Amino acid sequence: MEIITINFHPTLDNYFEVKDMLPSSKMHVQNQVILPGGGGLNVSRALSQLNKPSFAIYFAGGAYGHELATKLSEAPFENYKIEHHKSIRENIVLKNKKDGAEYRFNMPIQELDPADYFKILPLIALHQNMKFLVLSGHFGDTIPLEFLQELIEYTQKKKIKVLIDTKGIGLRNAFDIGVFLVKPNRREFEMMVGENCPDLASLKAKGQAYISTSATENILISLGKEGALLINKSQTRFFQAPTIEQKKQCRSR
């Protein structure tokens, strides 16, 4: 498989609607849909919609993990579960039909044990034709620097392009080690560089300064409805987002 996606902390995304938000009242749920969620799984799902095959690796445990695996058994992409003794989370997206407002509740993750991350490495080695490795979603605070170093060193030897979409220490460490692309949003980029960037000019300047001395090849800063900003050593390019009708806001990290 040419594209492998990894999700350390997947979710069950529970979508539903109520007629109106009324405090201290029983509100009857309508139109409930429960879907697999999490960055890596979302990437594989999007790729399948583009008729591009991928192989998703994820950690899961507990009753929610069992339900996630059941749902993924019918997914339009190949996937493999690494069993974990802690339950995954369920995130909730609630829509108030009266005013159209959407409320999102992201539950805390159950941290992986540091040794768990290394279970990824032998699975990666099985895919000799891999060209892209996508690590997307919450990495967790227990991810060992040694694991990232070993993983990225392996991909560099095999000329595999690594794409990182996460936040916090995982994003910072991956950027410092050096990968093909990191994709923070504006807030995550500001946290990574330790400085506020209130406009496009300041984002460009800070991004160019950071990438000029980094082993990482590309920074793609997501700017929401504004678009995205691509920065590498040879160019800085802004992509304006197309105008679309918004259906849902949920994303899992």
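That was protein one. Protein two is written in the same sequence-then-structure order:
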Amino acid sequence: MPRFTLATKITASRVFFAALTIIFLYTNIPYSQWLSLFFFVLAIVTDFLDGYIARRNKEVSALGIFLDPLVDKLTVLSVLIALVDLRIAAFWLVILTLFRELIVTSFRDYAGTKGIAIPSVMSGKIKSTLQYMAILAGIMSFGLEEVTPGFGNFTFKISWLLLFASVIFAWYGMYDIFRNNLQNVLAASVPGDQLTKVPVADDVSALQDVSSADQ
């Protein structure tokens, strides 16, 4: 049975904070938007804290490795969908974000069945940071609109630009992942008996094609 370490519990708490973020976005009480912002900040803190604690306590586990990216996607996408409903985030940007996550996650899962681990790319980390910043700015614009409409509108535009930038990095990261890993995954998908039937000349041509592509 999987053991819930402290790091894993912190990872799971991110779902709870994301839920509170969404609840207070829709709650019509004083300072509800700022409470929403507070809980999302806590969600971001847990994203950095769980990995740190897992490494410090040497508690890196298969369950934690599985849960962390899943909870990250659930947290970001659920809050973004709520912001779309509240007309803070652009629908088409969130759809592009969702499609990218589905494609990359499916590719990673398929590669895993072939014994291939797909490493993360720097553009993906930048994408996650921009998504967090876009959501923070979006929630702030929602709260500031009631106090200082002009500044709230400015923050809304900043949120839109950050989310747009995150989509660019997300799709570039997906291209990078496929460019670096697709050939290995496809090669691993070919049965061994078929590999032995490939003529030597074809193998040489294939190697030359790969060499040309690398250049």
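The chain has one domain: 6-214. Keep this in mind for the problem set.
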